[in-house]
Amino acid sequence: MFIKKLLSAICVISLMVSILLYPSFASSSKEDSDAKWNERRAFLEENIKELGAKGPDAVDAFLKKNGVEKSDKIIADPSRNISPMSAPGSVTLSISAYRDQYSSKYLVTGYWTWNDIGLVDTSAGALDGVALSMCQTNWNPVTGYVFSSNPAQMAIYDNYGTLYDNAGSASVISKSGVAYTFQDKWITGINKFCGYSGSAWFWLDTCPDQLPIYIKMDFIHTWTSAQLNNFGISWPVGSAPTLNMNFSTVPSKFMKADQITLYSWPRL
């Protein structure tokens, strides 16, 4: 009898201890999950930065090898006037969308490169800008998505492939888009141009409710010095979102390019 009562008491105590400890287990599990994601994200982004100078194909190959699935690009209806609009002969833009099979996070990337160093004016001046925007096929911002914590990053390279890790930053999150600025720089004597190519990206915890969606990349390059007053993404009704940069004085040369691609992410 004593042994049965003792065993019963032990069971009750064990149950009470389990109940008391359960919240901490849940917390620990989430912390472990967050820690694993942070570690994985750091690994992915370190390689995205290192490989970015070789172009988007090198990044694609790395991501595929490491379980980050690229989404299928959908051919857009040309009647909607959304064909690539990169400035001919100057800059090439490339957009991609992915889903990480391990974390179920979503990744949007944009890449630019000048087509020839001879096209770059040596008097690189004011800040340059990049934007990545997601919108529905009626041009409204997407809904249902959740940006990851500190979602956006970018990497800047010169024409020799050197990485300038601190040359740019994600400055504005606007509805379902992110705008970035970076400082280009011409280094005289050795024909080195910081800003010759680069990549920008952001992470989502959840996929937008609407699929397929347009992903748009904007690129703005300036030649002369000017103070940037404000910048961001405008969302005009009935048309595609646009990156706007307003300066104290208008730079003497101002180039703008953009590209829009239709994507449908794979869902769980």
Number of helices: 2
What is the C-level CATH assignment? Mainly Beta
CATH topology: Immunoglobulin-like
How many discrete structural domains?
1
Major sheet strand order = 1-3-4-12-6-7
Strand content: 35-45%
Please give a structural write-up.
The protein contains two helices and 16 strands. β3 and β4 (106-114) form a beta hairpin. The longest helix has 50 residues, at 2-51. It is globular and about 55 Å long. The strands form four sheets. It has a six-stranded antiparallel sheet, covered by helices on one side. By secondary structure, the protein is an alpha+beta fold. α1 (2-51) packs antiparallel against α2. Residues 9-28 and 75-87 have low confidence and may be disordered. The protein is 22% helix and 41% strand. The relative contact order is 0.18. The chain starts with a helix and ends with a strand.
